[in-house]
Design goal:
about 0% strand, about 80 residues, mainly alpha
Length: about 80
């Protein structure tokens, strides 16, 4: 019976989450110590380092449309040849 109580006590997540004090992670402590001396510059959320120039989206659309047309023509040709 004592073995079952030890098991329940060891893996009681509700008890652990209801703790009064939660210690910050090592990374959080390291960043807090670093930022006391040298605070970071404000930055937008997940900003790209350099903006990427936009490509012409019509080129990729034209390639897809051409591929669909070629497949349709091939299927039609195969069906036409198989009907004779």
């Amino acid at each position: 019976m004592a073995e079952k109580n030890d098991w329940e006590r060891e893996f009681d997540h509700r008890w652990a989450k209801s703790a009064q004090h939660k210690e910050p992670s090592a990374r959080a402590r390291m960043l807090a110590a670093r930022w006391k001396e040298n605070p970071p510059n404000p930055a937008p959320f997940r900003a790209d380092p350099d903006p990427v120039p936009r490509r012409a989206s019509w080129a990729s659309t034209a390639v897809v449309v051409a591929a669909v047309i070629v497949v349709m023509v091939l299927i039609g040709f195969v069906q036409f040849r198989s009907s004779y």
